[in-house]
Amino acid sequence: MKTKTRRVSSLGRPSVWAVMKQRVRSLFCAGKSPTISISTAASESLVQGMNGGNGSLRTPDLLRDIADISLQISLDTIESLKPGFLSSATIDDDLKNIKECSPADIEFDRDSRGRLVEIGSGGFGTVFLATHRPTGDVVAVKMFKRKYSSDQRIRREAAVLGHLAGTKLCPEFYGLVDYGADGGVAEGRFAHLAVVTELVRFRKSTLQCFDLKKFSQTYFARRGLTPQDWLNFSLELVEGVQEIHEKGVGVFDLKYENIMVTRDRQGAIHPRIVDFGAACALNGDKPMMPPERFSLETLRALRHDSVHLAPEIFEHGVSSAAWDVYSLGHVLQDLAEGEKMEDLKFLMGQCVADDPALRPSLALLLQEMNALSNADMA
Ligand SMILES: Nc1ncnc2c1ncn2[C@@H]1O[C@H](COP(=O)(O)OP(=O)(O)OP(=O)(O)O)[C@@H](O)[C@H]1O
């Protein structure tokens, strides 16, 4: 069994943060809805730390621990809140029938020093470049951090990819690979299961990949694009999410980093989505929701990178299309602002209403966006 080192303060006692972390963990493990009491001094330090100040707790460690805890909480919550979590009809069948890939089918690319070539990474995994031997296709292999990834979670992500095969935004799914107990190429850093998908590259002729964040910051790649190009891109994204919803699935983690940009021969840009790790059946599942007592404020402070998620996600609600509407609004409002597209920005402002009932449906949103597009073309 893995042994854990406890962080100890200079006085030889566990630090305030270590104690707090332990308390939160034990409460979650006990399956209770915890009220977390943080001493005034510690919470002040926390706020100072968040604001870049010099709290008495060591800020970088603190922030890393916060991220660790919130991820761990999300996972524990997924696993424990609803034992029948995976029983939603749409995904359930796919879970029994996940396409598999043999480790021998995957040939990893290596750099001149023999290291695996990394395409990207996130909180849960790292994605590597490889070739799928049977087809000769270039693929992306997502290896999952052992610490955060149960088999169930990985299988679920693979099942969703299989379920969404053929939809416009979802990358082609090659299969789930099992590297066995010794981890094979994963060298112990990652879980034994990995997910293989198409490499979503910028152009067919290159291995370069751009997520929307990187793309927005790369002048040469976005050179020459007009507001109409961006509007078309946004329309395709919203249409694509609608198609995914029609397959009974919500993405629930739409953000700049998970939206890839491709460019066709005519120079038009198109969106794709990677990372279906938070995807769930619509109107059925209860995805990553911390217990009620964990207020949105606390959570927002803790998971400072989750502002793209609808507030009600943190409140035990039943999953709904409105969650993706919120995230789309968050991304596209920002994009519209950058591109100085006032009408689009205004429209997207309605998608980020705190009250889900006030957000437009995807159908209505598309209607409005098409009207914008036609007006611009006229
Ligand atoms: N199929 C792919 N083709 C090209 N790039 C990819 C692909 N899959 C993932 N990436 C890149 O790798 C990054 C990390 O992948 P992914 O988002 O799946 O990891 P994650 O750990 O689940 O992330 P998060 O912390 O957001 O949940 C992505 O942001 C993207 O830039």
Say what oligomer this is: single chain
User: Structural class, from helix and strand content?
Assistant: alpha+beta
Query: Under the CATH scheme, which architecture of the largest domain would be assigned?
Result: Orthogonal Bundle
Number of helices: 12
**H/E element order:** HHHHEEEEEHEEEHHHEEEEHHHH
Number of domains: 2
Radius of gyration: 22 Å
Tell me the β content: 15-25%
Q: What is the CATH C level class of the largest domain, in words?
A: Mainly Alpha
Percent range for helical residues?
25-40%
Low-confidence spans: pLDDT under 50, at least 5 residues?
A: 1-17, 23-87, 287-294
Mean pLDDT: 76
Termini separation = 67 Å
The CATH superfamily of the largest domain appears as Transferase(Phosphotransferase) domain 1
GO molecular function, one term: ATP binding
Organism: Lingula anatina (Brachiopod)
Binding site for ATP: 142
Domain Protein kinase: 113-372
Structure description:
- The structure is a single chain.
- By secondary structure, the protein is α+β, with helices and mostly antiparallel strands.
- The longest helix has 23 residues, at 59-81.
- It is globular, with a radius of gyration of 22 Å.
- The protein is built from twelve helices and twelve strands.
- The strands form three sheets. Strands 1, 2, 3, 4, 5, 6 and 7 form a seven-stranded mixed sheet that branches. A three-stranded antiparallel sheet has the order 8-10-11.
- It has helices spanning 16-29, 40-50, 59-81, 89-96, 151-163, 212-216, 219-222, 227-246, 296-302, 321-338, 342-351, 362-377; strands at 100-101, 106-108, 118-121, 125-132, 137-145, 173-178, 190-198, 210-211, 249-250, 259-263, 269-273, 280-281.
- Strand 3 and strand 4 form a beta hairpin.
- The chain has two domains: 99-199, Phosphorylase Kinase, domain 1, CATH 3.30.200.20; 208-377, Transferase(Phosphotransferase), domain 1 (Orthogonal Bundle).
- The structure holds adenosine-5'-triphosphate.
- Adenosine-5'-triphosphate binds next to strand 3, strand 4 and strand 5.
- InterPro entries: Kinase-like_dom_sf, Prot_kinase_dom, Protein_kinase_ATP_BS, Ser_Thr_protein_kinase.
- It comes from Lingula anatina (Brachiopod).
- GO terms for molecular function: ATP binding; protein kinase activity.
